[in-house]
Amino acid sequence: MLALGAAADAQPAPVLHPWPDATGVPLEERLAPPEGCARVPAAPGSFAAWLRRLPLRPGRPPVHLHDGRLKGNQEAHEAVVAIDVGGRDLQHCAAAVIRLRAEWRWARGCEDAIAFRFPSGDLARWTAWRSGARPRVAGSRVRWVTGATAAGSSPSFRRYLDVVFTYAGSASLAGELQPVSDPLGVVGGDVFIQGGHPGHAVLVVDVAVDSAGHRIFLLAQSYMPAQEIHILRNPAGGGSPWYDAARAGELVTPEWVFRHSDLRRFPASTCGGSP
User: Fold this and answer.
1) Measured between alpha carbons, how far is 207 from 55 in angstroms, rounded to an integer?
2) Which of the two ends of the chain, N or C, has the fewest CB atoms closer than 10 A to its terminal CB?
3) To the nearest 5 percent, what fractions of the chain are helix, strand and coil?
């Protein structure tokens, strides 16, 4: 597993990416910005810095679905993130964003901050699940009932996320995010999202800037059926996966067309002392 560097006599460093099989070349070492661009500084421990270190599988392997089959479109991705997709058809687009946000908070030791809303508006807190509470959903109503065995293990955390994925989607996630007033200021951890049925969401996983101050960025997604999270190619990039920031107009990705005004941001967080 990838870990922060530490002196031999220091305490063990926190694990950056604590899920099983989180091995591979970090994104920032694999996907360099174009010549003349440099990565935008990211605060240590921040979501943006964590995303920049996402492990990527070697080479350019095919994207697999949750059941092991190959995704039909193998031309959309530049690289595949070394993270499991689960065995059920749950980890779709918004779920992939939720998964990475939750894993970052878990890695930072900010378990109290892991919470996402169901479409009903009810909050699904990891700490409630960890203590043995489980949701009982009836129509648009959600009740949390205590009775399960308390468990704060990684497998229990993964089961909690599957329950969130079952009910949350692009519409509910969009309601948790804040509009970005100027998309030219895109940062790592931002989300391009169109909430709906269907809707779609892609996550900004890295940002760089040129000498004139213009920003470019990388995008990651999952899709339907549930599939491995992957770094997108840019159809207009001439072979580069980097996208140009813009204040308005269309953002054309391989499988969805957003508008730059669809950019949203998670509310400010004090998780681990980092935004």
Assistant:
1) 17
2) N
3) 25, 30, 50
Cβ burial of 166 (10 Å; 0-12, 13-18, 19+) is: middle
Cα–Cα distance, 159 to 60 (Å, whole number): 29
CB neighbours of residue 110 within 10 Å: 17
Q: How far is CA 251 from CA 25, 218, 234, 246, 263, in A?
A: 28, 12, 10, 9, 10
Task: State how far the Cα of 116 lies from the Cα of 53, in Å rounded to an integer.
Answer: 24
Residues in the chain: 275
For residue range 25-50, list pLDDT tens digits in order.
Answer: 999 999 999 999 999 999 999 999 99
pTM, entire model: 0.92
Q: Which amino acid is at 174?
A: A
Residue (of 53, 172, 162) closest to 108 by Cα position: 53
